Amino acid sequence: MVVKTLSPMAVQARADILEFELVNHPLDCPVCDKGGECPLQDFTFRHGYPTSRIDGPRLHFKKPIPLSENIALDRERCVLCYRCTRYYDEVAWEQELTVGQRGVQSFITSQFDQPLQSIFSGNIIDLCPVGALTSRVWRFESRPWDMTHTESICSKCAVGCNVNLWQRRGQLVRVTSRENDDIDEGWICDRGRFDYTDVNDPSRLRTPRINGAKATWADALATVSTGIKGKGAKLGISLPKDITNEEAFLFKRLLDGPLRGARVKMHGRTALPAPIAATLRIKDLDAARVIVIVASDTESDVPIVNLRIKKAASKRGARLIVIHPDGVDLDRDPNTIHIRNAPGSAAAEVRKLASHRLLKSAGGPIAILYGDGLGSEEMADLAKSCRDLADAVGGNVMPLYRATNERGAIEAGVAGWDPLDGIEALLSWGPPPTAGIPTSVKFMAAWDHLPRPENEKADVLLPATTFAQRQGSYTNLEGTVQFLRPPIEVVPPLKESWEVLVELGAALGLTLDYAGIFAIQRDAAAAIPALAALAQPPSPEPAPEPVLIGPAHP
Amino acid sequence: MADDEKTTDARPEHPTPLRGPDEGIPAHPKGKVPGVGADIAALATGLKTTLGEFFSPQVTLEYPEDKSPRSERYRGRHYLRRYENGLERCIGCELCAAACPVGCILVIAAENTEENRVSPGERYAKTYEINMLRCIFCGYCEDACPVQAIVLGPEYELSDTSREKFIYTKEKLLEPLPPDVQARLQSKAKET
User: Within a domain: residue A161?
Assistant: First the structure.
């Protein structure tokens, strides 16, 4: 078959279709946030008529209409392609977005004019081919050509979605998805997309402080080391959930050396044990015939894996078995088998499943996903029962870690789960411990990027970098190591976190002789088999993208 | 090294000599030294020119008291225009900054609200800066502007004492409010 795309008829037809598309379009490209990266603009430039024959009145709507806290809707710009409503219906399994009226009067509207609630709502901004759905967080922040983008990894949960971080004038102004079919298929959740404004917070910490007074790094780290040295089990350490593999490797050296015996609590981690054998890949969910989801509300724990499960169910015909005490959004599939267990009894329910008729005659791969039920389950038992079930029915398991680099931290040996009660010294790295700061603490050092009320009592306050400034890598919940690229420079007195750890090691009497991140990555790759991918970090220069060239007018 | 690749340090001969041979001072055309009469004639010619110019119409101006007229299309310093009701024309679209060949314009946009309406429509320029030292006065910004907000005026005397003062901010670039709007705002301020 020969397809002619440049025959006079085809060129003419494109121009005619574009003329129709623009009948009610307001052509307010100069003030539209899509302008500069708008397919309709590009197509009109390449294929459209230079003038319009439509001189009738255009449809007018009130604009902009806030669809939610984060999304604005401009009905005049909408070309009614129904991508957003179709995405909501088919991919996200939500019914919040719909079309009002009929024919030429149609418009996109949220159900009963209620604000959108879904955690997947932000993807409709990327899907919209015109400027009808735009981000309110990024609204009028910059034009696309003002920004540079850097390919990085989302730091909000353990799925490890690929993202582009967009920078203008040293500020992180936008986060968009970057397609990686092995992991995210081009979707990201609203946490990853909109939760970045703390990076640009003007009140961010920039200089170390000792008892509230500005200090040098050397003095501050000397004070920290005298405060935490030799405390043994009286020292508590709170780790951030988005600790990188490199930081975890360095920190493990500190824990094995001068900080031996310290109690470590990783922020937001599940109590899931380390995987004993190869676990399921996210992309393998596509081929699964039966997916068992145990003790996890996947929508909030691992949002993009949740979309994969929905895809497997609605597009590939997989059957879902959910073991969870409460209703979850996967119940929207009428064929879902939901076993409501009493909290803490998930392992017993999993053992009963071995004789389930669906699993006995699955007719294909079986995927068993298990979370920690927000701490309500006995994790070692649940992990073992899931592994046993997988062995019995011939499937594979996927532990649903919650903290961003939980799997990497487990493999590096720093992902602690120790209670911090009764400690005398506290090193609070990242946000303060969720259980609060124990009253027994006499010395507290906080290493954070924002001033927080909990940190006001800290004896030493160290400024930290954010995910937009950090070099390093994360291991996602399936075990893939992916690299972060920082779009924003680390401006002194701020220091890279690996550098701070090296200097803290020196203050504690441990020589960590590293001059840069690559040396750390090489050593970590040699020391930890699961981090072997660190030996080959990707080239810092991404491949150049093709550029549209030349107009093609009729 | 092969013979045919042999190179030499000597430069090739220039095809024509750069300077001709010294031909000496040319002889006087008439072959004799000119007399006093010729000197007086030359002086009279010079005086005639001077006196002729003295009585001819004057072309120079006593700058800076007097200034030469500017063409209507002269491109001097920029102005940001307003509408008659006092609202700014600029919508902060940054097309001027995109068109600028030297990158001397910085625009940071923001959203109009009911309480703070700066321009008609949704968007206005929160920051508008032009680096006058870098500007080449090409007028592409004026050409690119979709709302005729940025225009180049007739002023060309742009001198100052520091580089920072050449970064013209929005306050400096904006036209003053129309008199009637200003009067209305003043009377409103008096009432409250």
Answer: no
